[in-house]
């Protein structure tokens, strides 16, 4: 399924948002700020632990379980709808790095290269693309 706002702008563009992944550490961070968010409540398909999702480059591949393979395409850009879930959540998932650049913490997007069954607790193997690496941007 394609993101409606992007299709409205250009219906011919490729769908770079097939799979949404969030790091569970974000939920821990949000809990410390007084928000209660559980896996699946922010629309993600996969929740990870111990992987620096936001630090991965474009083209990184994640092997999920025995056979599913996702190629990372970019960052998820949170929208105002997130505040309908919990007021103030949009501000809580945005930050600034030391040089003032906006940091979007709501996970990453990818495309499926290979399908397969994925279960809670499955291992995730990360393969980086050849250098030079491109930093993730919103898709």
Any overview of this molecule?
The structure is a single chain. This protein is an alpha+beta fold. The protein has a domain at 4-55 and 73-111. It is built from four helices and eight strands; from the N terminus they run αβαβββααββββ. The chain has helices at 4-9, 24-32, 82-85, 89-92, and strands at 19-23, 46-48, 61-64, 68-75, 94-96, 102-104, 108-114, 124-127. It has a six-stranded mixed β-sheet with strand order 2-1-7-4-3-8. Strands 5-6 form a two-stranded antiparallel ribbon. The protein is globular and about 35 Å long. It starts with a helix and ends in a 12-residue tail after the last strand. The mean pLDDT is 92.
Distance between the termini: 14 Å
- The whole-number mean of residue pLDDT values reads 92
* Strand numbers in spatial order across the main sheet: 2-1-7-4-3-8
* Structural class designation: alpha+beta
> What does the overall shape look like?
globular
């Amino acid at each position: 399924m394609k993101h409606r706002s992007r299709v409205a702008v250009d219906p011919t563009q490729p769908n770079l948002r097939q799979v949404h992944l969030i790091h569970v550490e974000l939920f821990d961070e949000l809990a410390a700020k007084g928000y209660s968010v559980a896996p699946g409540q922010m629309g993600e398909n996969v929740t990870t632990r111990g992987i620096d999702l936001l630090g991965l480059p474009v083209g990184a591949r994640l092997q999920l379980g025995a056979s599913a393979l996702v190629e990372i395409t970019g960052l998820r850009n949170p929208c105002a709808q997130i505040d309908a879930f919990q007021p103030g959540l949009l501000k809580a998932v945005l930050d600034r790095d030391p040089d003032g650049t906006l940091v979007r913490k709501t996970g990453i997007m990818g495309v499926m290269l290979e399908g397969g069954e994925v279960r809670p607790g499955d291992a995730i193997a990360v393969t980086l693309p050849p250098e030079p690496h491109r930093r993730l941007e919103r898709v």
